[in-house]
Amino acid sequence: MRDAREGSGPPAISRWTRLSAGFTTGFGGLIVALIFVPALGAGVVQDMTGLLILVLMAVMWNALAGYGGLISIGQQAYIGLGAYSTVWMCNHGANPFLAMVLATLFCGAVSIPLSFLLLRFRGAQFAIGTWVLAEALAIWVSFDNALGAGTGTSLLQLDTYAPGPREHYIYWLTLGMTVVFLGALFVLLRSRLGSSLQAIRDDEEAAASVGVRVVAGKRILFMLAATGAGAAGAMTLANTLFIEPNSIFSVNYTALMIFMVLVGGLGTFEGPIIGAIVLYFVQHQFGNDGVWYFVGLGGTAILFALLLPRGVWGALEERTGLRCMPLGYRVARSATPVPPAQEPA
Amino acid sequence: MTWVNDVVQGVMLGGFYGLLACGLALMFGLMRIINLAHGDLAVLGAYLVYLLLEHWHTSPFLAFLPVLPAMLLIGYVLQRVLLERSLRSGLLVPLLTTFGLSIVIQNLLDQGFSPDDRSLGASAGGVATASWQITSQLSIPAIGALTLGVAIVIFGGLQLFLSRTRAGRQMRATAQDPDTAELVGINSRAIYARATAIAVAIAAIGGVFLAIRSSFTPYSGPTYLIFAFEAVVIGGLGSSLWATLAGGIVLGIAQTIGGQINPEYPVLAGHIVFLVVLASPRGGLLNLRRATA
Fold first, then answer.
1. Residue B132, SS3?
2. Chain B interface test: which of A67, A70, A71 (most B C-beta within 10 Å)
3. What is the DSSP string of A288-329?
4. Would an 8 Å CB–CB cutoff place A132 in contact with chain B?
5. B139 - beta bridge partners?
6. Residue in A125, A292, A302 nearest the CB of B100
7. In chain A, positions 87-116, which contact chain B (CB-CB < 8 Å)?
8. What residues contact A165, with CB distance under 8 A and at least 6 apart?
9. What is the DSSP letter of B33?
10. How much is the pTM?
């Protein structure tokens, strides 16, 4: 946070700058513009849905890792759960789009009891604990014949919609979900809780010692991240129409999330969005190279973790003091000089 | 009687998991980090043996002799190049970098050896298939007994190394307090590199047994990393080495008994035992000696 600049007036704490106000407005404008993407044609819609799902995954993984200091290797548990509970609800007669929303909420509900198990741990235990949970869930789903067992299942109920409008609805729902979750994180970080979350990330013991409720803060992030991953899972199902346990519960999702967040910027609001856009282009360029694509992703993640731990956006913020989203506080002196009465004699 | 057989098979399977977990426990005890590429390094060891056997028709155990120094070197370089830097930036970064390394190793193995199933069982000859029939219900496979025997020798050897030798004492001192150890002239970075070298070499031994017992692919690593970590946690993260072997045996028994209930259950049963242990108040079944920090 940059301190006093310009003017000699009394210090004032502000949250908005001209830049961040402009940027936030621009961001809002971008979202409005994104509503009209379906006008660009069929191919674009499905691609943009994919990109939004990546954004959602990256932002939610970063909420947990970047703000909670918790590295999860098991967010695919909620991706799979979101997808499979959508299938389950549709099989029981629910409208597919309603089912996607309900499945998302269901993931949030499931994460509450799990948080009591997992939030007792940090570091490696948390990381592998989440992973084992995802594996156990994948095995359990693969036993369930009603869900297609190990061979997978399709969301047949979506076939009642014509392909064109169907893709539009899926796109708009994905956009809506992404905006809701980005907005929720934004509000969370700007609230009183946001400051305590940053304190937790920087030093858990110190934060606890000044009265920050560490576990409560982490639980909110844990639930948010789980719900968001669930949404990403439900929308992945909608976008691909077919899922199988091995791929929807694949740890490769975690690899993608780690790549996006490390490249964009761990613990920054904008970074994961940039990381998702980078991954989107990398996928289009190299996604068919299979083996070398993943070698590149893993290698790049290692390099960023070691050399640029705050990613592209974090480095940019550090160098320039640029703050595009009004999440922090800044102290500035107003331009009006201090009234003489307050000057020492 | 089948239950006795399950337990016996489980104990031997546990020796295998102990072998895979040994290096993980050593590195966690010393540096408080978990190497997420541990399973992939074990599989890498198996592939190196496989590579040698393509040109040299002999037993996998003999072919492992030249692989051993290679794995020691890989461990040493891994610590110096990757883990040392990662450790400097806190405890989360090693998780990220070793996860990245795991992806890289898997895909490079895929590139080099194709994603096909491989096995060293055939090259191992009689050891892989022989067994002693004790009663009609109870038989002891030679490879199981050998795995358990090797595990006990390695755990014992490592324990002796840590308690009796100068290098081992230096390692324990560094584990307790690296800064104070530095003050009395111990080079903690060198100690870390040595420990990782040993950990990776033991992982490779586990990898050879993995390759003889069952088939493997370039993507087998994470499965065995999870089993190894489960063994470490069930034994009590940060407690003694023998507890890790005991943790492996608990996991092995859980899996064989799960498999007895339903052939599809062994892995799930292991995961459930792990999660129950994780949920227990101590967070480790055999965590009698409280882990520091």
1. strand
2. A71
3. GGTHHHHHHHHHHHHHHHHH-TTHHHHHHHHHH----S--S-
4. yes
5. B133
6. A302
7. none
8. none
9. -
10. 0.87
Work out the angle at residue A306's Cα, subtended by the Cα atoms of residues A301 and A310, and round it to the nearest 5 degrees.
80
Give me the long-range contacts of A316-324 (CB less than 8 A, separation at least 24).
A317/A265, A317/A268, A321/A2, A322/A19, A323/A17, A323/A19, A323/A20, A324/A19, A324/A20, A324/A23, A324/A24, A324/A270
Interface check for B237 against chain A (CB to CB < 8 A): the answer is yes
The whole-angstrom distance between B193's CA and the closest CA on chain A is 18
- The predicted complex's ipTM stands at 0.87
Does any CB of chain A come closer than 8 Å to the CB of residue B278? Answer: yes
The residue of chain A with its CA nearest to that of B264 is A143
Chain B residues in contact with A127 (beta carbon < 8 A):
34, 36, 95
Rounded to whole angstroms, the Cα distance separating A96 from A92 reads 10
| Residues of chain B contacting A123 with CB distance shorter than 8 Å | 32, 34, 91-92, 95
H, E, C per residue of B222-290: HHHHHHHHHHHHHHCCCCCHHHHHHHHHHHHHHHHHHHHHCCCCHHHHHHHHHHHHHHCCCCCCCCCCC
Cross-strand pairs, A242: A154
Cβ separation of A125 and B100 shorter than 8 Å?
no
Q: Are A212 and A199 in contact (CB under 8 A)?
A: yes
Cβ contacts of residue A204 below 8 Å, gap of 6+? A69, A122, A214
Pairing of strands A11-14, B139-141: unpaired
Pairing of the two strands A242-243 and A153-154? antiparallel
The values of phi and psi at residue A212, to 5°, are -75, 135
In order, the DSSP letters of A130-175 are HHHHHHHHHHHHHH-GGGTGGG-EE-GGGGGS-HHHHHHHHHHHHH
Residues 217-256 of A with CB under 8 A from B: 251, 254-255
Domains of chain B, each with CATH number or no CATH: 2-126+139-279 (1.10.3470)
Flag if A73 and B99 touch (Cβ within 8 Å): yes
Question: What's the rounded Cα separation, in Å, for the pair A249 and A83?
Answer: 10
H helices then E strands: how many in chain A?
15, 4
Domains present along chain A, CATH in parentheses: 11-336 (1.10.3470)
From A131, A139, A255, residue closest to B268, measured CB to CB: A139
For residue A13, the SS3 value is strand
Token code pair at residue A149: 């067992």
Distance, CA of A310 to CA of A315 (rounded, Å):
6
Q: What is the pLDDT along chain B (293 residues), one digit of tens a residue?
A: 578 888 988 999 999 999 999 999 999 988 888 999 999 999 999 999 999 988 888 888 888 999 999 999 999 999 999 999 888 887 788 999 999 999 999 999 999 998 889 888 888 777 777 888 877 778 888 888 899 999 999 999 999 999 999 989 999 999 888 889 888 888 889 999 999 999 999 999 999 999 998 899 999 999 999 999 999 988 887 678 888 999 999 999 999 998 888 888 888 999 999 888 888 876 655 554 444 33
Is residue B170 within 8 Å of residue B191, measured between CB atoms?
A: yes
CA–CA distances in Å: residue A223 to residues A28, A52, A269: 25, 20, 18
